[in-house]
TrEMBL record:
<dbReference type="Pfam" id="PF02622">
    <property type="entry name" value="DUF179"/>
</dbReference>
<protein>
    <recommendedName>
        <fullName>UPF0301 protein GMJLKIPL_1915</fullName>
    </recommendedName>
</protein>
<feature type="region of interest" description="Disordered">
    <location>
        <begin position="1"/>
        <end position="24"/>
    </location>
</feature>
<comment type="similarity">
    <text>Belongs to the UPF0301 (AlgH) family.</text>
</comment>
<dbReference type="InterPro" id="IPR003774">
    <property type="entry name" value="AlgH-like"/>
</dbReference>
Length: 219
């Protein structure tokens, strides 16, 4: 975990929602604060059946965190010990919800860097970004210290790494039917049942997962 600068400029959603460009033409529609849901035919195996929360999306590119894939062979108590936030003997005394807090594989970029998506009842000045109603992002080790001490946010998930797109890349992938998107649901993001998130996200779009799989198989 470190407090480095944002990969993509982060802005309030009010900066670009329902805006117009010079000359009165509609501005581009950006999807920060929404979920991306991989289509069954996703060619990149790293993103197969992924649900990604988009933390930033602008003309310069996009950055998001996969919220439905666990980091391999790593849990929250072990991570807190590795970071010297708690001692080995303290790991068994963590509050139950902290001990079972998901550690996610957030994406293939900077996979050793930690990002915490969390509820807005916790804030660190100049470190916490409110992305959308109900969801914040903090990428400093101080939030893990607060979580371990029981003073952190009421809901949170920790992700290692992120997914990134260059300018225009995400738009091209969506146009090529690589991704669906829908409004984000904090309950889905923070839920520990990772295996159900993909199907739940599809249903939130109004798609029955079994029917989508059958359609992909007959394409």
């Amino acid at each position: 975990m470190r407090a480095g600068g944002s990969m993509i400029p982060m802005r309030s959603r009010t900066d670009h929602d329902d805006a117009t460009s010079p000359g009165g033409a509609p501005a581009a529609t950006y999807l920060d604060g929404q979920l991306l849901v991989a289509m069954p035919g996703m060619a990149d195996e790293r993103f197969a059946r992924s649900v990604i929360y988009l933390c930033a999306h602008s003309a310069e590119g996009a950055m998001g965190i996969i919220v439905n894939k666990a980091a391999a062979d790593l849990n929250m108590p072990d991570l807190l010990v590795q970071l010297d936030i708690i001692g080995q003997a303290d790991a068994i005394r963590l509050p139950n919800r902290v001990g079972h807090m998901p550690v996610l594989m957030g994406g293939p970029v900077e996979s050793s860097r930690g990002f915490v998506l969390h509820s807005p009842d916790f804030h660190i000045d100049q470190s916490t970004l409110l992305i959308d109603e109900g969801i914040c992002l903090t990428a400093t080790v101080e939030i893990l210290r607060a979580i371990a001490a029981g003073t952190g946010p009421s809901s949170a998930v920790l992700a290692l790494g992120y997914a990134g797109w260059q300018a225009g890349q995400l738009e091209s992938e969506i146009q090529a039917n690589g991704w669906l998107h829908c409004p984000a649901d904090p309950e889905l993001i923070f839920n520990a049942a990772l295996d159900t998130k993909y199907d739940r996200a599809l249903r939130a779009i109004g798609i029955e997962p079994a029917m989508l799989s059958m359609s992909a198989g007959h394409a």
